[in-house]
Write a structure and sequence with these properties.
By secondary structure, this protein is an alpha+beta fold. The protein has three domains: 65 residues, SH3 type barrels (Roll); 105 residues, Serine Threonine Protein Phosphatase 5, Tetratricopeptide repeat; 68 residues. The protein contains twelve helices and five strands. It has a five-stranded antiparallel beta sheet, with no helix packed on it. A hairpin with a 2-residue loop joins strand 2 and strand 3.
Length: 278
């Protein structure tokens, strides 16, 4: 038996603590490599998470170690999905297939989304698919788990995805509040196109029509080779021209979308909008 005095000491320093046994039906342990610093890492199973402690069992050992999340620098998970296959499915706009594959891969790890890991590219792909499929509630719910991450390259896009999900659910006040926490991009790369597109929707919802047009124009002006936000911005522009009664300009934009992005969902959406303007 471990002396009571020693137990108290171990709890105090946060080095080790006894944990309750996992409840029946709880998730299986997650195989990982846990980095405590740039040079110190463990090959270990994550057994569970209880409040502010993560239960870890190092490979080859039976005892569990309890680690505060802020003591973990990074978690690397084994990846079982084929990245090239997912990207090809994305280009083919097979968003439902991607969502299904990534849900199986990522859902068990969402409890640890506040800790840096090697999965952000997959989370990003999943969030994109949810947005294009207009699954706004799920989009917002998943994105919210990442909005406190330490890395700006994760935290800011996550807040944008959360904002877009809230807009899609017509929770405009919450969306505005979340958008105001996003740091404006310092370059035209990274999340700049997503930022400007989101800003356009926020301005529009807030009645700032001219600001909305300018933000959307920034997407179009600086993302000529983009196949995600560029067609989205063009279609948004066409919708606005149509709503303003500028049918001729709206038809020109829809024709441009069909030419630049043939055989895509954007071409189909542009064609459908064009028919309403005849």
């Amino acid at each position: 038996m471990i002396p009571k005095r020693l137990l108290l000491l171990l709890f105090a320093v946060g080095a080790l603590a006894l944990s309750p046994a996992p409840a029946p039906g709880e998730e299986k342990p997650l195989k990982t490599r846990i980095w405590l610093s740039k040079t110190v890492s463990w090959e270990a199973d994550i057994v569970g998470r209880y409040k502010d402690r993560i239960d870890v069992r190092k490979k080859g050992e039976t005892a569990q170690v309890n680690i505060p999340p802020d003591r973990i620098m990074r978690i690397d998970y084994p990846i079982s999905v084929d990245r090239n296959l997912l990207l090809n499915l994305y280009l083919a706009e097979k968003y439902g297939e991607i969502r299904k594959a990534l849900a199986k891969e990522l859902d068990p790890k969402l409890r640890f989304a506040d800790i840096p890991d090697n999965l952000w590219w997959m989370h990003t792909l999943r969030l994109k698919c949810l947005f294009w499929d207009e699954q706004y509630k799920e989009l917002s719910g998943i994105a919210e788990k990442f909005i406190t991450r330490k890395e700006e390259e994760v935290r800011n896009p996550a807040r944008l995805w959360h904002t877009l999900g809230l807009i899609g659910q017509e929770s405009i006040e919450e969306a505005v509040e979340m958008f105001e926490t996003v740091s404006p991009p310092k370059t035209r790369r990274g999340y700049a196109a997503q930022y400007n597109y989101t800003a356009s929707l926020i301005h529009d919802a807030s009645g700032r029509t001219q600001d909305a047009r300018e933000a959307n124009a920034n997407v179009i002006a600086f993302n000529a080779k983009d196949y995600e936000w560029m067609p989205a911005a063009l279609f948004l522009s066409a919708q606005r021209y149509a709503a303003d009664g500028s049918a001729d300009i709206a038809r020109q934009v829809t024709a441009e979308i069909r030419t630049a992005y043939p055989s895509t969902r954007w071409a189909a959406k542009a064609e459908a909008l064009g028919k309403t303007l005849e």
